[in-house]
Every structure is written in C-alpha cells, then in structure tokens.
Amino acid sequence: VPELPEAETIVRGLRPFLLGARIARVEVLRSDLLDARPEDFVSLLMGRVIQEVDRRGKNLILTLGTVEPTPPAKPASPRPGFKAGSAAVEGRSGPGIPDRTHLVVNLGMSGRLLLAQVEGDTRPPPSHPGIRFLLTDARVLVYDDVRRFGRLRVLDPAQYREWSRTLGPEPLSPGFTARDLCEALAASTTPVRSWLLDQRRIAGVGNIYANEALFRAGLDPRIPARRIPPEAGRRLHRALRSVLREAIGNQGTTLRDYRTPDGGEGSHLQALRVYGREALPCRSCGARVERIVFGGRSAFRCPTCQPWIGS
Ligand SMILES: [Zn+2]
Predict the structure, then answer these.
(1) Known catalytic residues?
(2) pLDDT tens per residue, range 84-110
(3) 284 C-alpha to center of ligand 1: Å?
C-alpha cells in the first residue's frame, strides 16, 4: 500500500516531466475510480496545464491552471498596488489564479501514476489502465490500478483547502514539532499504532512505517497514546521522521504492487526492521519478532526492544 515515502517518490519522479504539460484529452476507462460523473471529471481537466506536482499525506496532487507554471525561486516581494485580500495573497500571481483546480489522486491499495509511451520506453504498457490523460505533446499519463481501491477527484481551491484541513499535519514538515506530537498523543486513548494510521491525526503514515517508527522508538504498538511519556514521544517524533526520510531515500518499499515512476521497485524492503518479519530474529537483539493483530491490521513487535509501558 503506498504510504508517504512511496507517494513522495512518485511525485519526485514525475514532477520534472509533467510541469508545464497540457492535458489535451481525458479517457475514463474505469468510472468506479471517480466520485464524479465521468463527463464532469473530464470537462474540469480538459485543456489545463499542470502547474504543480505535489502530495498531501499519501495522496498525489496535481495543481492545474490555464497558464504555464511560473518559474520557481522568485523571491516574493510585494508589487506596487498589491492589495491584501486579493487573490494574490496565496503567494502566486498571474492570470491563471481563478481557474486553478486540483486533481487529488488517492492511490488506494495498488494505484500507480505513470507516464507511458515516452520515446525509447521499453517497459510493458500499463496492465490495468483506469484513466488516461493524453497530453498535447503526445505523451500519456496513465492512472493504473489492479485492485481499483484508488480514487481520483477534482477539487476547486476552496474544496481543496477544506479537504486538506481534514488531514493531520505533514510529519516531515518543519512546522511539525515533537511538542505537537506529544500534545496530540496525550489527548487520545487509542493504541499508538492505530493513532499513527489515522490520517486525521497525522498524514501519510500507514502500517509499514507506523510499525517501523514504533520499533525505532522502542514502543509497544498497543500502548494507549496518552500513556506515552514526553521523552518517549520525542523519540517517536524523531523515529517517525528518520524512518520516512530513509524510506524516501530508498524510493519506498515494494511489497507487491508499488513501483517507482520509472517502473522499478523501491528498495526499502531490505531495511525494514520488524514489519513483515514475524518469527524472524530482531535485527537489534535477536529475540523473535511477534505479530499481533488488532484494529484489523497486523502489528509487529520485538518483545525485548518494545516493552509495554506501565501497568
Ligand atoms: Zn529486539
């Protein structure tokens, strides 16, 4: 299942190829991937230019406008006549503002977004194409999904902000501090592994990286969030960020369906310390890793390195 590092890998791989590309046509092959009617989905995207490729949590976000993206790294300086409260308050300028829209791609279990039919491409074509975005330069961006749990939605800026507010903070953003995490944990009795999986509390963490972060922080996945003392909360904050960063460095974890945008597998699988390692020796102490099922999902734990806290 793609989590934050996999989404980030896809974003980094696709961004240089997609910025400035214009959508000529959209073909909906699987309408169950959409909440909207296919004809509405298509009409909201036709003719638009991809201005940004980003992610929010595990979701890929394509920001689309009507004009070419402005080159980045321009220092923001207020121009003469700049009026607070105008559309330019968002830090962008140009005639494309009112028409901006966001394509939100939730990859579900097995979704992939890939650029197909690029010259010299020797990869096999997508096996389960759901939506095809034909670009004006003859390239094709394909949303491919074997199991079809993914969802694609087009949101206007107000709807996008509203949706984004339903998600918790980005764990890798500089603004997400250990103190924020400790305060949020203290307000909940949920087992910490389930807490980490809740996208409303923190965005982008799924079962793989939640388990890995808890191992690194030395915490039993079943501990109620509010029982975690501040110093362990700080450890968890550090562990979470380092696990996610390392996984991004390894281009994510391929268990089954996930592929990097160039068709390769992420190499983080070998780096996993507990996830999927039931009955194998702990990489730190040699004790046997346990699998415990709760909240409908497997959790993995080293009984020595991740002791239960308190009574
Ligand atoms: Zn251990």
Answers:
(1) 2-3, 58, 297
(2) 333 333 334 444 444 899 999 999 999
(3) 5
